[in-house]
Amino acid sequence: MKQLSFFLTLFSGLLLFSCSTEFSINGEYQETPIVHAIIDANDTIHYIKINKTFLGDGNSFEFAQIPDSSYFKSVEGKVAEFVNGTKIREFTLRDTTITNKEEGVFYAPEQVVYYFQTPATNKLNPEARLDLELDLNNGSHIVTASTELVYGVEVTDPKNITQLNFAEDKVEDKGDYKNEAFKFSEGVNAVVYDYRIFITYNEFTAAGSTQKTLEWKIGEQDRESTTLGLINMNGINFYELLRNSIPQDEDVIKRTLHSMRFQVVGGSEDLYNYILVNKPSSSLAQNKPTFTNLDGALGVFTSRMKHSITRTAFGGFSPNSRILSVNSTKELCQGAITSPLLFCSDFINDQNYNFYCN
């Protein structure tokens, strides 16, 4: 199983530069465009990051903090949408400034990216091919690329009628925790998948209530997996995640489960190959292979698709529906792992249990 972790924010970490902090302008330098775009047909705004390699006589980390070091002076770009070989639409790229980039080696918090937009009622055709064309610095660099879109990725289980049974009625050892299946339908043009669950809960203090969300990384699969389309959610991992992620706070009176969002993201073969090449290596060798699917640039122009379903803790599908079984809810509220977190059930059907909220 290859741990790809490719759904971390790709744009924040893929600008590569030399390990050396000192550059000399005496050597020959060739300016190279670096382009990153991961298109999701479900989105209406599609971002493309366009930068260049930079060189300065001095400390490279200081140059990395200067925006002009990695921007082109002029960028003209367009993306064409083709279906069955016929051009359907063409989009002109516009620039915008992202203002929430985290601090790091490269300049922050502002960063210029490019984008094109589709109407919510007329998104990209999932069966389309997209062609990218860039003119950088008035013809100094012409960059082209094409990608087929990923589509058809869909979470199929847990369904609305499914209760997650993570624990037996009495938990005495690890064997009393249970696994549940996370299932999805494989997408077209997708070869790698990432599974995550976002757990939202309510936190109550004397001052009021606050809603918080934490992320549960279930795992990843690629086309070599023998169980592609199915991955287990481990019961004990669920409770340990909550214990390790939620700090005990003496001001908290109680907590209640609000909802769980189940997400799968399918990535294209080009994205799969790009991340395999760029993932950290345990070798001391500095010469690594390079992957790009762009002509005239480094980087990747490719596709993914994200799909998710949200299950409310109680009463979403029907008045009696619940996401966690009674036993699992009891373990959340009273079990050895999570009882210090002060969870209780606010589901009316649980009012006769001693884990019901007062």
Identify the strand order in the major beta sheet.
Answer: 7-8-3-2-17-16-13-14
As residue ranges, the low-confidence spans are 1-26, 56-64, 103-107
Instruction: State which percent range the strand residues make up.
Output: 35-45%
pLDDT averaged residue by residue: 86
How many structural domains can be distinguished in the coordinates? 2
Q: What Rg, in angstroms, do the CA atoms define?
A: 24 Å
- Described by the principal axes of the CA atoms, the overall outline is elongated
- The amount of helix comes to under 10%
Overview of the structural elements:
- Residues 1-23 form the signal peptide.
- It comes from Lishizhenia tianjinensis.
- Keywords: Signal.
- With 358 residues, this protein is mainly beta.
- It folds into 2 domains: 10-152 and 267-304, no CATH class; 154-265 and 308-350, no CATH class.
- The protein is built from 4 helices and 17 strands.
- The protein has helices spanning 60-64, 235-245, 269-278, 326-334, and strands spanning 22-23, 33-39, 45-52, 58-59, 75-83, 86-92, 94-98, 111-117, 129-136, 141-148, 154-157, 179-185, 192-205, 208-222, 230-234, 252-267, 298-312.
- The strands form 4 sheets. It has an 8-stranded mixed beta sheet with strand order 7-8-3-2-17-16-13-14, with helices on both faces.
- β13 and β14 (208-222) form a beta hairpin.
- The longest helix is centred in the C-terminal third of the chain and has 11 residues, at 235-245.
- The two termini are 46 Å apart.
- The model is unreliable at 1-26, 56-64 and 103-107 (pLDDT under 50).
